[in-house]
Write a structure and sequence with these properties.
By secondary structure, this protein is of the alpha/beta class. It folds into three domains: about 80 residues, Winged helix-like DNA-binding domain superfamily/Winged helix DNA-binding domain (Arc Repressor Mutant, subunit A), CATH 1.10.10; about 100 residues, D-Maltodextrin-Binding Protein, domain 2; about 100 residues, D-Maltodextrin-Binding Protein, domain 2. Helix 1 packs across helix 2 and helix 1 crosses helix 4. The protein starts with a helix and ends in an 8-residue tail after the last helix.
Length: about 300
């Protein structure tokens, strides 16, 4: 037979209180009931847990080991009951968030840290995607929320604007494009363009230049490294390269069509399945902060 949690609790009380009478008082039960539960637990486990030959009952060696495990079970049971109360109070068991990789992680990580410190019971999973892959993953995984640069609107999606992000067309100072005072589209087509991989395979970024040679990188950190090596040119969010631009280790391309553009990222969630308390709290933290990082 499996041990009874109430019986383990009775044994724990006997040991902590130093005897059956005090344990019964602490548990608000009669002494005979506490004694019966401990006797039943010993019978269930098939070992003697308490040494009753002394003036004050003590644990046997087996009792010490088994009570230590029993206390762990009691703690898990209490945690389980606490989680159940929180779920019943509107905290969702799971929250899935898809984050566009062009946006900095800092604000999202700060928000997740706050949720961890607040001990929310929700299991939160965050996935990073790029370009059309953000909405693709949002739909495929039936995620609860996405923080995205661009998305295709639907009646069942609600969007909230976040802080504007600026992108800069960058190149290494050693690259031929860095030497030109005015760069045309034809000039760009003569060189390798650097981009990030769209995991949805739904097409390239609308701001790409349509040349024949494009290298797709795994993310913007790898893209910045490729830019600094002089491999090609490409758009970068300014928060990731402003120090390099100031130091001259990257340069802004003097493109005739414009070397900067800005976009307003959105926090998007479904109206058909409203956010629970963890989702609403996360949205509150993100909307109250900045996803654009610290620009100088």
């Amino acid at each position: 037979m499996r041990p009874d949690l109430d019986a383990i609790s009775a044994l724990d009380a006997v040991v902590r209180q130093g005897g059956f009478a005090r344990a019964a008082a602490a548990l608000h039960r009669v002494q005979s009931a506490v004694s019966y539960q401990v006797d039943k637990l010993e019978a269930q486990l098939g070992v003697q847990l308490l040494d009753r030959t002394r003036y004050r009952v003590q644990l046997t060696p087996a009792g010490e080991a088994l009570l230590a495990e029993g206390r762990r079970l009691l703690g898990q049971a209490d945690h389980m009951a606490s989680m159940a109360r929180q779920f019943a109070d509107g905290w969702e068991p799971r929250l899935t968030v898809i984050l566009d990789g062009i946006l900095p992680l800092e604000a999202t990580l700060r928000a997740l840290k706050t949720l961890a410190e607040e001990k929310v019971p929700t299991r939160i999973q965050m996935k990073v995607e790029y370009l059309g892959g953000v909405q693709f993953r949002f739909e495929k995984d039936d995620a609860d929320m996405m923080v995205v640069k661009d998305y295709v609107g639907r009646p069942d999606l609600e969007a909230h604007e976040l802080r504007e992000v600026q992108c800069v067309l960058c190149v290494s100072p050693r690259h031929p494009l860095a030497q030109r005072s005015r760069v045309t589209l034809r000039d760009l087509h003569e060189h390798v363009e650097l981009s990030v991989q769209d995991s949805s395979d739904r097409g390239d970024d609308e701001h790409m230049f349509g040349g024949d040679r494009v290298f797709y990188l795994s993310g913007f950190i790898a893209k910045k490294q490729a830019l600094r090596m002089g491999l090609g040119f490409g758009w970068m969010p300014r928060y990731l390269v402003h120090r390099e631009l100031q130091a001259g280790t990257l340069r802004e391309v003097r493109y005739a069509g414009g070397s900067r553009y800005s976009f307003t990222p959105k926090l998007v969630h479904r109206t058909s399945t409203p956010l629970g308390r963890s989702g609403r709290r996360l949205a509150e933290l993100l909307l109250g902060g900045s996803l654009a990082g610290h620009e100088e």
